[in-house]
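Hello,

Following up on my earlier ticket. Below are the two sequence lines again, exactly as submitted.
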Amino acid sequence: MKVGIIGATGLVGEKLLELLNERNFPVTELRLFASEKHLGEKYLFRDQEYEIQSLSEDAVKDLELVFCAASNEIAEQWVPILQKTALVIDKSSVFRLKDDVPLVVPEVNLNRALEHKNLIASPNCTTIPVVMVLAPLHQEFTLKRVSVVTLQSVSGAGRDALDQFIYETEVLAYHGEIPKDSASVLSAPIAGNIIPQIGKFRSDGYTEEEQKLILETRKILELDDLPISATCIRVPVRVGHCAVLTAEFASPVEPADVVRVLKNAPGILVLNNNEYPMPIIVEGRNEVFVGRIRKDYSTKAGITCLVATDNLRKGAALNAIQIAEEILSKREQ
Amino acid sequence: MKVGIIGATGLVGEKLLELLNERNFPVTELRLFASEKHLGEKYLFRDQEYEIQSLSEDAVKDLELVFCAASNEIAEQWVPILQKTALVIDKSSVFRLKDDVPLVVPEVNLNRALEHKNLIASPNCTTIPVVMVLAPLHQEFTLKRVSVVTLQSVSGAGRDALDQFIYETEVLAYHGEIPKDSASVLSAPIAGNIIPQIGKFRSDGYTEEEQKLILETRKILELDDLPISATCIRVPVRVGHCAVLTAEFASPVEPADVVRVLKNAPGILVLNNNEYPMPIIVEGRNEVFVGRIRKDYSTKAGITCLVATDNLRKGAALNAIQIAEEILSKREQ
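Thanks for your patience. The regenerated structure is below:
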């Protein structure tokens, strides 16, 4: 299969390359695209060197499958061109909420992927683990209300932010503090700090990231009116997003029943009592980790738990590749 | 006034010394107590050197005011002895929930402090900011339900944990990662990680820290049946505790009304739109910072916001000293 990756030099782009190899994805030709400043850089894939190219209609015209892990601006410009001839799996947020674009987590709504018009959107890195936990619980217990607080790692903000965090960690180690006004890719220093803003603020006080989590969760679960609240916080962690997920159901649910349902849910690893998900545990792993499942004492029929994922794997590159794998396997059937 | 500090060499003990000076507290004599290993260490207070002493009945018998910032074990043993002759302000959790011990945040329930029997307990470092925000809102709008997710700094776990974090930050800066099984004062490495466990686990899956936050909040607000849920998470930050605080009221409340009430509440600083509380902002400050006040979309009448405090100041030493100041000023009246 002739495969293209747009945004190949980014953290998600590189993870796509790593996982295509790890999962023996049937690549017969590979083309890697990135912005001007990366032109000529070389990447190794299955013992062959590939050079970063510029995007052009000529360079993409015979591709069969394209993973788009680029900025919203690039996606907006190129996805409509690409989908004329290739199946496009897009990680940007541009098309996720469009009616005729399936927004897919294979474990949750693979059926929607099959309705694609050559474009399938992959959700936000925090939406994916949240819906993977909520979907099987909704099926069994009927969701009434959801509240999410995320603790998101710096790699979710891209390579420049991650480089800044690594630099700040060195400054913190040597000098004991970060100048408060130090230039940062993020809105404030992140080493030794937390930043309760991801994305721009909207007029209702929510951020774009919180809005994405709310609207994408409703679309994937097909619950347009689900009451859901979100607070997204950046924490000084390299890889691994965590979330405190609280859900209320139609009638009271025992933690043991939640454990039973989630232990049977695909892609989820339920931790035993007194263990819990942490970034250092989930980095490099493909599963969505769930732990600390217990009653939510603030409601009559609520459950609260901790959820964590490698945001570059299941939160991004892995989910995109799984979508492609599922579409290919259906074609073969 | 003859003042003693028990646990003077700890992070809270040292902050007590700093604040007694900063606030011109009327100290005529000062005695500093700590464990054996600190005996003979010297501290400077108002240009005079004080040596760390051992606790003995003789050494405390003429003290008039004692701040106890020691372990639960030390508090359990010594507070009953101390309170026979001195007013004791205790930071441990041993006596906080006892019926005949006032649990006091001066801005919230000073009236309770006046009923003391020579012992007043100062709440947990996360309880203090939470009740300072909830109390004025309850008075105006009537609380129905509360949910808290905390992001707590490492200094809250004491000096050994803070030293471990500083060491781990250096390892992270030099080597890029922390060995997962590195010996840690906490239950896991904290640099580059988050740990969703503070205190031991109880049989219901909540931790001791979460239980403290729930029960202390109910006691201070005098709402024994308030439905309240808590998740407490340690984050790689030196000083400054943050919390996502969600509250539901008897009827719908506008964010602007919450802003109005909190702007008039003592000890609270409400940040403007698009600003928000962060550890690097609150460290060294006495106020409880509140920001990101907005509707909670998961409930009909809920509000959610971000709260942050210097956990060593208002979360610990400052609150204890304010209690003493208020009692002294009442005596003088």
